[in-house]
Design brief:
This protein has a 7-stranded parallel beta sheet, sandwiched between helices. The protein has a 6-stranded parallel beta sheet with strand order 12-11-10-13-14-15, sandwiched between helices. It contains 15 helices and 15 strands. About 40% of the residues lie in helices and about 15% in strands. The chain folds into 2 domains: about 1-170 and about 340-355, Rossmann fold (3-Layer(aba) Sandwich); about 185-325, Glycogen Phosphorylase B (Rossmann fold). It is an alpha/beta fold and about 350 residues long. α4 (about 100-110) links the parallel β4 (about 90-95) and β5.
């Protein structure tokens, strides 16, 4: 029986891994789940394993936070011993976090093939840690699962033509397969939030949380918007706000600061919002699925389909652009299918099984 190592470490990876793991159960494969511990806060890790019925990890590396170099070194040291012991036939990595890049590098150094789910995405800015991880992982991967045709084209332009599969995004599977409507959001210590009468926001990219001007501009823009902003804050963002002396903004009546939420609560917050403001690639595509206009708090996005279809706008940390974006109407003339039709995980599992048994 072929053995597959599934490596996860951060919120977006837990979400993508859930439907893929479910689809892989249909094939005679031994699955080993490895959690790097890059995200270790309960609201960014454990809650997703419970909520999405992800099996308990076989190994937890407890790598924790730290700068990029430290995380890479720690993950590689701890993962190498696990992979050397398990000797999987394939290592599967997701997305573009440090867990992704470090795991791909470790696997290839041990001569273990790598499959990259969410391959081919680019932001074309090497100052972004996520872009470095994208480039490293795609340079080392043996099998490429692309969420969009744009991603396939990027790989083709760089000379990668074999073992490339256009599959869509696994997160769309979760959203498509849900039965019944999403309930109105109810936040502990805040209560029920009135649907359609708020904006939903997140902000966690290094470019924003480590730059005082950017972070203050975003918070200031939130205070100037016509509806209150339900602001879901990563622990790192909250720490940055405190360290940069920007706590006063969180006391403003227009900002409703909340802890990170589970997957389905987040989907309820998106679905019942007027629109979404975020620098998160994951939330951009989730808002796209739910039919919400996205004000992108970054200078670029890998999800270019959202821009091409008139369903979002690049704002960065520019106050005027953020305020202008709120006035824009979403173009609903095209269906929200550019990121997949809900069968991504089935395609991934089928092609992965073929790859392992050829």
């Amino acid at each position: 029986m072929k053995k597959v190592a599934i490596v996860v470490g951060a919120r977006p990876q837990f979400i993508k891994a859930a439907p893929v793991l479910h689809a892989l159960r249909k094939y005679p494969l031994e699955i080993v789940i490895i959690h790097t511990g890059q995200h270790y806060d309960v609201n960014l890790s454990e809650i997703f394993f419970n909520e999405l019925s992800i099996p308990t990890a076989d190994y937890h590396l407890n790598c924790g936070s730290g700068d990029g170099v430290t995380q890479y070194v720690t993950i590689m040291e701890r993962l190498s011993s696990v992979l050397a012991r398990e000797r999987p036939d394939l290592t599967v990595v997701f997305g573009d976090t440090n867990s992704t890049g470090a795991s791909a590098l470790t696997s290839r150094l041990l001569k273990i093939p790598v499959a990259h789910i969410e391959a081919g995405l680019r932001e074309f800015d090497k100052d972004i840690p996520e872009e470095i991880n994208k480039l490293v992982t795609d340079a080392l991967a043996d099998f490429y699962f692309c969420p969009t045709q744009t991603a396939v084209n990027v790989l083709s332009a760089s000379g990668i033509l074999e073992n490339v599969v256009l599959c869509g995004d696994p997160v769309i599977d979760l959203l498509s397969q849900r039965k019944g409507p999403l309930p109105s959001p109810h936040i502990e210590n805040i209560g029920k939030i009135e649907p359609g009468k708020y904006y939903f926001a997140t902000c966690h990219r290094q470019r924003n949380k480590e730059n005082r001007t950017n972070l203050e501009n975003i918070l200031k823009a939130f205070t100037l918007l016509p509806l209150p902003v339900v602001f879901s804050m990563h622990p790192g963002t909250r720490n940055a706000i405190e360290q940069l002396g920007l706590e006063e903004y969180l006391k403003h009546l227009n900002i409703v600061a909340i802890e990170p939420q589970g997957f389905w609560q987040t989907q309820s917050l998106i679905y019942h919002s007027d629109r979404v403001l975020t620098d998160s690639g994951g939330l951009i595509k989730e808002a796209y699925f739910h039919g919400k206009y996205v004000s992108i708090l970054d200078c670029q996005t890998e999800w270019v389909e959202v821009l091409k279809e008139g369903k979002g706008m690049i704002c960065g940390a520019d106050i005027e652009k953020i305020l202008f974006s709120i006035q824009q109407e979403r173009d609903n003339s095209t269906p929200n299918t550019s990121l997949g039709n809900g069968d991504s995980s089935m395609i991934i599992a089928r092609e992965m099984n073929k790859f392992l048994n050829r």
